[in-house]
Amino acid sequence: MSILVTGGAGYIGSHTVVEFLAKGEEVIVLDNLQKGHREAVMTGKFYEGDIRDQQLLDRVFSENKVEAVIHFAADSLVGESVQDPLKYYDNNVITAQNLLAGMVKHGVKRIVFSSTAAAYGEPESIPICETDRKEPTNPYGETKLAIEKMLKWCDQAYGVKFVALRYFNAAGAHPNGHIGEDHQPESHLIPIILQVALGQREQLAVFGDDYPTADGTCIRDYIHVSDLANAHWLALQKLRRTDMSAIYNLGNGEGFSVKQVVEKAREVTGHPIPLKIAQRRAGDPAVLIASSKKAQQDLEWKPQFNSLEQILQTAWNWHKNHPQGYGK
Ligand SMILES: NC(=O)c1ccc[n+]([C@@H]2O[C@H](COP(=O)([O-])OP(=O)(O)OC[C@H]3O[C@@H](n4cnc5c(N)ncnc54)[C@H](O)[C@@H]3O)[C@@H](O)[C@H]2O)c1
Ligand SMILES: O=c1ccn([C@@H]2O[C@H](COP(=O)(O)OP(=O)(O)O[C@H]3O[C@H](CO)[C@@H](O)[C@H](O)[C@H]3O)[C@@H](O)[C@H]2O)c(=O)[nH]1
Which residue numbers delimit the NAD-dependent epimerase/dehydratase domain (predicted)? Predict the structure, then answer.
């Protein structure tokens, strides 16, 4: 039996493929390469194409005995989703609907889904627990929440069991140095900071310093991509073991402001990393910090790279050795 990884050529997906292969799983990747990189898929069977293509899905499910789907494929930028919400409803909600229809048609009953901290919106308290209020402040989070609900109803109606993983901010790179983060154009904080350190950008624009936080900049909970990858495998084990659906937060439980991340990156890279204060970015909540107690208890998940320094160090190794990402 194989595990189908959608979006497996992307940042978190490619790290998860490596993790699953190391655990002895048979992996199939489906990715339209709109953001992903063929070079990032270390091995396994690769289908290039779009999940919205029902015929392609039929082919993938017919040519392989798929036990479970790990669903990463999506658009995932907070700012862009505010500018172009319909793109997000199309590529996130419609895509998930199509995928689930394919799964139901072909009798595939397990799915691990990439949800997000953006499902919560402005938190009612910190750290955020899975049961806390969910009022997304951007369409991206709204589409992920809609998919979680779609999964709940599909469980009830068709017996498709799911684990939705609400990751906080994925960061870092695989310690093997061969895969890392390469988004074109890049919009995430840590790779942008490292591009400044590499001399590829003059400075970092800090999106707002008037938030209700100690230094006025937004606080996020950065979680290493390899720890996320491992959580997916543990989530699949839980589905195999219990056949019960569940939702988990995945973060380190510690928040860092944009300015604190810059300060730590200065230590790691030895570069002064100049910054300028810019306008707030629409859709950004001030503080997002996870309680991951539930994942630690139920999944026995233990993050291995849980300091910001380790996260920045692995990311810096990747960026230094691949200054053009997978391009060169
Ligand atoms: N990066 C983060 O901090 C973060 C945090 C929370 C949740 N997530 C979620 O995790 C998932 C992966 O994030 P990422 O940072 O690796 O993103 P990514 O853009 O690097 O990876 C997504 C992959 O999906 C592919 N894809 C997109 N739409 C597709 C479609 N319709 N058909 C086939 N392939 C398609 C892209 O080509 C890409 O390779 C996303 O669902 C995202 O919402 C990411
Ligand atoms: O040039 C930049 C880029 C980012 N930021 C700030 O840095 C923080 C982190 O931003 P970014 O790295 O873009 O991540 P988020 O917008 O927090 O979103 C990420 O983390 C979410 C979970 O918290 C995921 O759902 C999203 O997919 C993922 O992109 C935010 O406060 C941004 O405003 C800047 O100040 N300047």
Answer: 3-251
- 178-206: pLDDT as tens digits: 999 999 999 999 999 999 999 999 999 99
In DSSP terms, 159 is beta-bridged to: none
* Residue 167 bears catalytic tag: no
| CATH for 121 | 3.40.50.720
Element (H, E) at 110: strand 110-116
**Two structure tokens written together for 66:** 């798929």
**Ligand 1 centroid – CA 60 distance (Å):** 19
Domain hosting residue 47, numbered range = 2-171+222-250
Same-domain status, 201 and 307: yes
Number of structural domains found in the chain: 2
Which region holds residue 223: left if phi is over 0, alpha if psi is between -120 and 50, else beta? beta
Residue 236 token pair:
């699949």
CB 4 within 8 A of CB 59: no
